[in-house]
Structures are given as structure tokens and as C-alpha cells.
Amino acid sequence: MATRSEETVRSLAHWQFLAGGLSGFIEIICFHPLDVVKTRMQIQGAHPFGGEVVYTCPLDAIVKIYRYEGLSSLWKGIVPPICVETPKRGGKFLMYESLKPYFQFGAPQPTPLTHAMSGSMAAILESFLVNPFEVVKITQQAHRGKRLKTLSVVKYIIKHDGYGIKGLYRGITALVARNAVFHFGFFGFYNALKDIVPSPEDKTYNILRKVIIAGLASSLACVMSVTLDMAKCRIQGPQPVKGEVKYQWTISTIKSTFKEEGFRSLFKGLGAMILRVGPGGAMLLVTYEYLFEFLKSQNI
């Protein structure tokens, strides 16, 4: 029979998974349009094809996508994230909590480095589950015509490119690197800043404090990882010339982008990424913390 402590651990794992999944679902629904904008701006080259709409900034992209493709186009590619992100976020937070004891390095309590390392490791592990869904999502988001059906995109990719690094797992190295760097910064900055900024007694102000800190941590993590995210989008999205693979590996993609489009191109989509991940990350992390505490206290 399981001991009481083992049952408690299992119960906590259930709440961690459920709280992570619910907070992830809410965040996806609210902020997916900015993910579409980020993808469009990152795959946009220095010399757009004739007749192709050019996006100058996130607001310009939102207006033009709405004008030429309709309001629903801002939610292109949302099916893959909903299918995978909700359970994935639950699994990520569960792994994050489970890995923390292994990165305390003798400290009596988890340190910011503990949170950074465990968050980064959990994100690396989730990359192998998420990559096929990312490829399908970006293919849908990049398409400027009518909305592509998710299953049709999956079948097309498998038929023409297969399951490996040329198909559903293309861009896996860029995704692993992006996730590792982003989550190291996100969880590390959040917990470091939370320890520095004093906690007010008023609950409302305390929630606001956490939201601001989480938003700032998300934004800093975006700056750290945006170049890797740009490379990932270019590798996973449609190639500039049909039938020719220009973007295949992370380092070569970054080098060619820098050479052809200049230093600023390495930060393409940063504004949209901060607008999407800054408040989105704040909502995700703070919602997770409060949902977890609520579920645990209710003993559902």
C-alpha cells in the first residue's frame, strides 16, 4: 500500500499538471494572434516576392492580416497548440517541479539557479513532443491564402518530407536551443526578481507585483532567445524558393540571415514576441501559481 507521503506527492503532481494545463489553455486563446504576427515577421525576408504584403511592425501586421485575410486568420494554426500545448504545459510544470530537488546543489531551499536549470531541462524534454506540432502550426500561420486544415498539412508534410529532420522534426535543434535559453532566463529572472522585490501584505498588490515581475522576466528571456526563435521559424516554415532548402540548420540559418539582411534581422519579430510572450508569460506563470495553490487548498 502507498504511504500517506506517497499519496500526497501524487496529489501534488495531479494539481501541478492540471494547473499548468489550464493556465496554458487560457494563455493560448488570448495571445495566439500575436504568435501569428511573430511568425509572419520572422519568415519575411529582405526581398519579398512580387505582390507579397510587407509587414513593418506588429500593429501593421495585425491590420494587414485582418484587412486581406479576415479576423479569423489571426487564429491560424491554433489547433496544434490547443492539442499539444494544454497537456504539454501541464507536463512542463510537473517536470519543472519534479526536477527542482536535483538542482539545489546542497542549498536548503531552491535558488534562482535551481529554477533556471529545472525550467530549462523541462523545456528541453518537451521540445521532442512539441516539434511536429510547431512545424504544422508555422506552416499554417505562414500561408497567406485560405486557412489550411490541420490534418491536410500533416498528411502533406509526411508524404513529401517524412517524419525525420526534413519533415515533422525539422528545426528540432533550433527548438531545443530556443526552449533551453528562454526558460533558463524566464524561470531564473522571475524567481531572482521575486526574491528581491518585497512582497506587500495586500493580496491585490501582491498579484500585481508577480504579474509585473513575470512580464519583465518573459521580456528579458525573449531578448535572450529571439535569434534562435527566428532561426526555428525559418527552418520550420516554407522555404523562400520552392524545391530548394535554404534554411536547414540553426547556425547556418543565423549566419546567412545576418549576411543577407544585417544585424537587425537577428531580432526580427522581437516586438511581437515581447507583446505575445511578455503578458502571456506573466499570465501563464501567475495563473499557474494561483491555480495550483487553489486546487491544493480545496483538496479536489
From TrEMBL:
Catalytic activity: 2-oxoadipate(in) + 2-oxoglutarate(out) = 2-oxoadipate(out) + 2-oxoglutarate(in); hexanedioate(in) + 2-oxoglutarate(out) = hexanedioate(out) + 2-oxoglutarate(in); L-2-aminoadipate(in) + 2-oxoglutarate(out) = L-2-aminoadipate(out) + 2-oxoglutarate(in); citrate(in) + 2-oxoglutarate(out) = citrate(out) + 2-oxoglutarate(in)
DNA-binding recorded as keyword: no
A GO CC annotation given for this chain: mitochondrial inner membrane
Matching Pfam families: Mito_carr
Gene Ontology MF terms: alpha-ketoglutarate transmembrane transporter activity
Gene3D superfamilies: Mitochondrial carrier domain
Topology in the lipid bilayer: Multi-pass membrane protein
Main location: mitochondrion
Stored PROSITE patterns: SOLCAR (PS50920)
Solcar repeats: 11-102, 110-196, 205-294
GO terms of biological process kind: mitochondrial alpha-ketoglutarate transmembrane transport
Source domain of life: Eukaryota
Keyword terms of this UniProt record: Membrane, Mitochondrion, Mitochondrion inner membrane, Repeat, Transmembrane, Transmembrane helix, Transport
The keyword Repeat is assigned to this record: yes
Location in the cell: Mitochondrion inner membrane
Alphabetized InterPro entries for the sequence: MCP_dom_sf, MCP_transmembrane, Mito_2-oxodicarb_carrier
Role according to the record: Transports dicarboxylates across the inner membranes of mitochondria by a counter-exchange mechanism. Can transport 2-oxoadipate (2-oxohexanedioate), 2-oxoglutarate, adipate (hexanedioate), glutarate, and to a lesser extent, pimelate (heptanedioate), 2-oxopimelate (2-oxoheptanedioate), 2-aminoadipate (2-aminohexanedioate), oxaloacetate, and citrate.
Family: Belongs to the mitochondrial carrier (TC 2.A.29) family.
Name of this chain's protein: Mitochondrial 2-oxodicarboxylate carrier
Protein source organism: Drosophila melanogaster
